[in-house]
Automatic annotation (TrEMBL):
Residues 78-114 form the RING-type domain. Signal peptide: none annotated. It catalyses: S-ubiquitinyl-[E2 ubiquitin-conjugating enzyme]-L-cysteine + [acceptor protein]-L-lysine = [E2 ubiquitin-conjugating enzyme]-L-cysteine + N(6)-ubiquitinyl-[acceptor protein]-L-lysine. This is RING-type E3 ubiquitin transferase. It comes from Erythroxylum novogranatense. It is an enzyme of class 2 (transferase). Pathway: Protein modification; protein ubiquitination. It comes from the Eukaryota. Its main location: cytoplasm.
Length: 326
């Protein structure tokens, strides 16, 4: 067990350490100069012996999961930003680890010992991570799955329990939460109009329609089939052309959004434009839906024609319906 007393990390990268700190027993130096991190070394050693014992067996990542071993889990937290570290994990010549984002931020100077970081990978820790299984970070929101360390991040980006972003457009709103929370937030904080029913008849009036700036938008929420739908209406510049666009987003995931359809109609002076579509999930950002032009688009000239009168005022009547596909 002599090698264990020096720690797995040091063994793996001893070549680098010798090159960077010639003549020193790095493991001993670490203990002497940084007594506070001795727990770190001990945990690493434990993880290493586990890994060695279970090599070639399924034991380590099996039912019991190593994630219960807090020591190992903590080892993988970057001491600078406290996020979990992913390859390449870096270390200084004295063995202090940090994540690749932080390595750039600290300008190559170890935040713990001020030594030059160099370009030393901590392959051992990367391998220990590979053997771990961790619960999804949305465990408290209902996800009970457990993932190999390196798949966890990817899963979390798509986990169906992850919170939704606030669907309000026009200002960057950082509020996240489940649908119920967001509906209350839209009502209370953004003063959004809420309507019950699956048909609607809306009038959009604007007195100076020749100012088309991206900030012109409206949001209305419909309660329909026990679910919520966001009707967006806005003016923006599509290429050279000023346009108005209306589209619907579903407050829920994409697989459920697909079960609904909607239609929008706008017209006047005996003309009519009709759009039929499928609401987009609010997982897709407002901007993404707008940029994909997945909605009713009305050129401003036509919109003014629909408005009648002297083209000095925009008066659009948009009617619509939401239904469930069987
Ligand atoms: Zn970091
Ligand atoms: Zn250091
Ligand atoms: Zn999950
Ligand atoms: Zn908001």
């Amino acid at each position: 067990m002599v090698e264990n007393s020096c720690g797995f990390i040091q063994l793996e990268s001893s070549k680098f350490e010798l090159a960077m700190a010639p003549g020193g027993n790095v493991c001993k130096d670490v203990h002497d100069s940084h007594p506070t991190i001795s727990g770190y070394d001990i945990s690493t050693t434990k993880a290493e012996s586990n890994a060695i014992q279970s090599k070639g067996t399924a034991g380590l990542a099996g039912k019991h999961g190593v994630y219960s071993n807090n020591g190992v889990h903590e080892l993988l937290e970057c001491p600078v930003c406290t996020n979990l570290m992913y390859p390449p994990i870096h270390q200084c010549p004295n063995g202090h680890t940090l994540c690749s984002n932080c390595k750039i931020r600290v300008h190559n100077c170890c935040p713990t010992c001020r030594y030059d970081l160099g370009n030393i990978r901590c392959l051992a820790l990367e391998k220990v991570a590979e053997s771990l299984e961790l619960p999804c970070k949305y465990q408290n929101l209902g996800c009970h799955d457990i993932f190999p360390y390196y798949s966890k991040l990817k899963h979390e980006q798509h986990c169906r329990f992850r919170p939704y972003n606030c669907p309000y457009a026009g200002s960057e709103c950082s509020v996240t939460g489940d649908i119920q929370t967001l509906v209350a937030h839209l009502k209370d904080d953004h003063k959004v109009d809420m309507h019950d029913g699956c048909t609607f008849n809306h009038r959009y009036v604007k007195s100076n329609p020749h100012e088309v700036e991206n900030a012109t938008w409206m949001l209305t929420v419909f309660n329909c089939f026990g679910r919520q739908f966001c009707l967006h209406f806005e003016a923006f510049q599509l290429g050279m052309a000023p346009v108005y666009m209306a589209f619907l987003r579903f407050m829920g995931d994409d697989n459920e959004a697909k079960k609904f359809s909607y239609s929008l109609e706008v017209g006047g002076n005996g003309r009519k434009l009709i759009w039929q579509g499928i609401p987009r999930s609010i997982r897709d950002s407002h901007k993404k839906v707008r940029d994909s032009q997945d909605g009713l688009i009305i050129q401003r000239n036509l919109a003014l024609y629909f408005s009648g009168g002297d083209r000095q005022e925009l008066k659009l009547r948009v009617t619509g319906r939401i239904w469930k596909e069987e």
